[in-house]
């Protein structure tokens, strides 16, 4: 019975991840030119629930599924590069990301693209004292346009 369940669950999970990727591409590309280039004010994220800092983990989370963010179409046309820094919590039970919050970014377009993509990433969870734990990590993303 377990074998059948895994054959059903794996395609379903992959379909959900693909759907999330398509949705993130559309949210960035729906912004106006002014919204894309608007400055992003540096934020001080606030997190809730039980978690540890990555510095306190015996084994930090490791990316298991980490596709690159969708490069905003307008920025490709302009050959525009930038960066974003995102804080998030990796869940102990699933390796999924939660409470994804942009700390700083070159502009709104890169902030949204980074946050949207990191919501789809999956990790091998952090370990503390031999147990999986929720873990707060910081993820820097570079958007370097290369023709």
Overview of the structural elements:
The chain has 147 residues and is of the alpha+beta class. The protein has one domain: TonB (TolA/TonB C-terminal domain), CATH 3.30.2420. Helices cover 34% and strands 29% of the residues. The chain contains four helices and eight strands; from the N terminus they run ααββαββαββββ. The protein is elongated. The termini are far apart.
Major sheet attributes = 4 strands, mixed
Q: Spatial order of the strands in the main sheet?
A: 1-8-3-4
Mean pLDDT: 83
CATH homologous superfamily heading: TonB
CATH topology: TolA/TonB C-terminal domain
Short description:
This protein has 4 helices and 8 strands; from the N terminus they run H-H-E-E-H-E-E-H-E-E-E-E. The chain is an alpha+beta fold and 147 residues long.
Name the descriptors.
about 150 residues, alpha+beta, TolA/TonB C-terminal domain, 4 helices, disordered N terminus
Please render the helix and strand layout as text.
Layout: H1 2-29, H2 33-37, E1 52-53, E2 62-65, H3 73-78, E3 82-90, E4 97-105, H4 108-118, E5 122-124, E6 126-128, E7 131-133, E8 135-143
Parallel strand pairs: 1-8
Antiparallel strand pairs: 2-5, 3-4, 3-8, 6-7
């Amino acid at each position: 019975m377990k074998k059948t369940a895994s054959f059903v669950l794996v395609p379903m999970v992959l379909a959900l991840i693909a759907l999330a990727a398509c949705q993130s591409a559309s949210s960035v590309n729906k912004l106006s030119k002014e919204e894309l280039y608007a400055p992003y004010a540096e934020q001080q994220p606030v997190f809730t629930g039980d978690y540890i800092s990555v510095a306190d983990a015996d084994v930090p989370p490791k990316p298991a599924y980490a596709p690159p963010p969708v490069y905003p179409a307008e920025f490709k046309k302009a050959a525009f590069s930038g960066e974003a820094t995102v804080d998030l919590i990796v869940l102990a039970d699933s390796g999924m990301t939660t409470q994804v919050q942009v700390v700083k970014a070159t502009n709104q377009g890169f902030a949204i693209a980074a946050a949207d993509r990191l919501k789809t990433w999956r990790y091998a969870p952090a370990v503390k004292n031999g147990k999986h734990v929720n873990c707060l990590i910081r993820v820097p993303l570079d958007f370097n346009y290369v023709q």
